[in-house]
Every structure is written in structure tokens, then in C-alpha cells.
Fold each of these.
Amino acid sequence: MGLESSVPHLRKMQLSDVDQVVNVHLSSFQGFFLTFLGPRFLSLLYGYLVSSAHGVGYVSLDHGDEIVGFVCGSTQPAGFYRTFFKNQWRRIMLATLWPLICRPSIGPRLLRAVLYPPQASTAQGTATLMSIAVLPERQNKGIGKMLVQEFLIEMQRKGAQQVNLTTDKENNDSVNVFYRRLGFQLVRSFATPEGRWMNEYAISLGRGAGGQGSRGAGETGRGGAEEMG
Ligand SMILES: CC(C)(COP(=O)(O)OP(=O)(O)OC[C@H]1O[C@@H](n2cnc3c(N)ncnc32)[C@H](O)[C@@H]1OP(=O)(O)O)[C@@H](O)C(=O)NCCC(=O)NCCS
């Protein structure tokens, strides 16, 4: 196998990628709430996002077209989860029935997510990076960075002026360093109703989005970015 064939390449995420994207999510987000909701729920969620007119997603493919990483988000994050739950509630109930029977403790959090979905920034021109993951064995090789840069360029092309995201504040140094190195700036820290401390980051899409020219936003609209972790 030549060196060239082992260099991953990027392309836009398609509906047919969802199964592989779910596998990457399950491998990379072990112990996270959405992972506990199971592959059927994740397929619905990523399928809904990729089919949405506001969804933006990229996948990184290895030789043999295996998906080794992905990034996705929305140009209109406000109300994303509300619409998702409203339009897909029957399928969501079916998809989460078994995970709920196996792990009843996730019930209250799921209920909160349905009744009080995370409030994304409503600031005009603010897009959200909702999820990014690279297969554990392929991390620290520059794939995540390439995915974010391509994502930011596409968001800028679609007219977004800034992109925000949330990530765990505690026990998550590597991911916080990852975003800071890409030019994201900390906007605020906040606790979820479960007492989970989160950091909200933003980057403004000035000249040269995704590259050296990107500048941290310093401020964002009210509310926090929605996250899929
Ligand atoms: C976060 C994640 C997507 C990063 O992808 P990746 O392919 O491993 O990251 P890259 O190799 O592109 O790293 C990009 C930059 O971050 C830095 N970085 C990455 N991991 C790091 C670590 N553990 N410690 C310090 N810096 C790190 C790299 O040094 C690099 O900086 P540089 O270009 O200045 O050298 C990946 O680790 C992952 O999937 N994690 C699990 C899922 C997750 O937590 N997602 C984020 C949820 S908000």
C-alpha cells in the first residue's frame, strides 16, 4: 500500500454515510449520554441533520473509503432539537425504548432534552459545530484539524459570521487544547442542570476561515451552542 493511499481525504457527508458516522461516534464518545441512547437514535439524529437544509457535514475517508472521522453542525442551530423531537418523536420513542429499559437512569435526562432542549445561540449569522469525532486509533494525526478547517470554510461560504460549540470543561484538556489551537476562543463556562460543567467556544469567520486568518470571536449571542456529546 502506497503512502498516498493512507492519507485520508475529505468530502461532504451524505445520508448513506450515517451508519459509518454512527460507528465512529460510538467508538469515540464512550460513556456519553447520546451514546447511551444507542445506534438507532444516533442514526435518526445524524440522518436528520444531514438531510436538513441547514446541516453541514464532512467525513474523512481512509483508503478503501472507510470513514475515520466526521464533523457536523448547522447554520440554524436555534430550535434544532425541538424540531427534531417534534418531527421524529415516534421513531425516537421506538429507537430509545430498549436503551431506556437497559439503563433507566438516562430517562430523566432524555425527558429534559425533549422538554427543554439546549438553547443554541440565536445571534444572526452564528452557526454551531454540533459534533466531531475521529476513530481513537486515528486521532492525533491531523484529521480533526482538517475536518474543522473544511467545516469553517463551508460555514463561511454559507454566510455564517461565526461558529460556536460547547465541550466539557472538566477532564477534557486535550479537546479544549484542540479547539484553542484551531483559533476558537472561550466565551463562557456554565453548568448544565445535571451539574456538568461546559465550555462554550466561538470563532469568527473573518478573512481566511479555518486557517491562520481566523480570529476568535470573543463574544457570541445569548445561550449556549448545542452539543451532541
Ligand atoms: C477531538 C478530536 C476530534 C481531535 O481530532 P484529532 O484528529 O485527534 O486532532 P488533530 O490530530 O487534528 O489535532 C489538531 C491539533 O490539536 C492538538 N491536539 C490534539 N490532541 C491533543 C492532545 N491530546 N493534547 C494536546 N494537543 C492535542 C494537536 O497537537 C494539533 O495541534 P497542532 O496542529 O498545533 O499540532 C478527537 O480527539 C476525538 O475524536 N475525540 C473524541 C471525541 C470528542 O471528544 N470530540 C469533541 C467533542 S466536543
Amino acid sequence: MESFKHGGYFILFSALCTPFLVNIVSYQRLLMFFIIGLASTVFIDFDHFLLEYMNTGKISKLWDAAKQPLRTLTDPEYLELSTTEEQRMRAHLLIILTLTALTVPYFVLGTIVIVKQILTVVLVSILFHICLDVYSDREEVEKFRDYLRTE
Ligand SMILES: [Zn+2]
């Protein structure tokens, strides 16, 4: 799924969550969480360009993406990549597992509530992104499931 569509669905998701969250956190914090979540769910797709670099050894597409981030996010045809859906899914899962592993100690030991809330927003946003990717291409998920079975 294209990054800008992830952003659109995240806005819808946020709108649905807002009535439940307004009683828990302030409006300012809610706006901050929305911006952090939107950025997390949209910009995680930049891992595709790291994958492209790992696939081809050429850094040019990573630079092109960095130079024109808006076009990269809105025009899926702009940079033709050699990465497969399976590689992208694995990269997303690796990122969320790494982030979870790094943040669990803070969830257990940390005392600053805002940090826990931001970490939660980032993890939920990335998980939301992965769920959309899974939903948008179920055929690729079947292949991924077969891959997991053979491992
Ligand atoms: Zn994705």
C-alpha cells in the first residue's frame, strides 16, 4: 500500500480513537500523538530504500527518496524498486520487533508517563501500518505464511 494511503487511513483511525482518548489526555497531547503517529505510519516505508540499497548496492534511490520525500510518498511510480513485498514485510516486522525489544525495559522501569505514551503511539502506529499492508495484499501474505511454515 502506498504511504499516502497509510496516512489517510491513520487519519480515519485517529478520528475513531479520539472520542475515547479525550477523557484520558489533553487536546495538546492528543495533537502531538496524532502528529507522531502519522509520521511513524507514513515514514516507516522509507525502509524500502534501505532494502533497495541492500539489494542492489546502489545508494542513488535512497538519495532520490531523501531529496524528494513528498513525491516519494505520493507517487508510487516515481522510484521503481526491486524489493519484494515479502522483503518489505520482513523489514517492517524487524523494525517493530527491534523497537519493542528496545522499549520494553523502559515500559517496566521508566517513570516518565509521556515517554511511555509516545512509545505506545509509535508502536501502535507502526503496527497499524503493518496491519494495513497485510490487509492490502493478502496474496503476498499467503506467500509469507508459507515462508514462515518452511522456516
Ligand atoms: Zn509498508
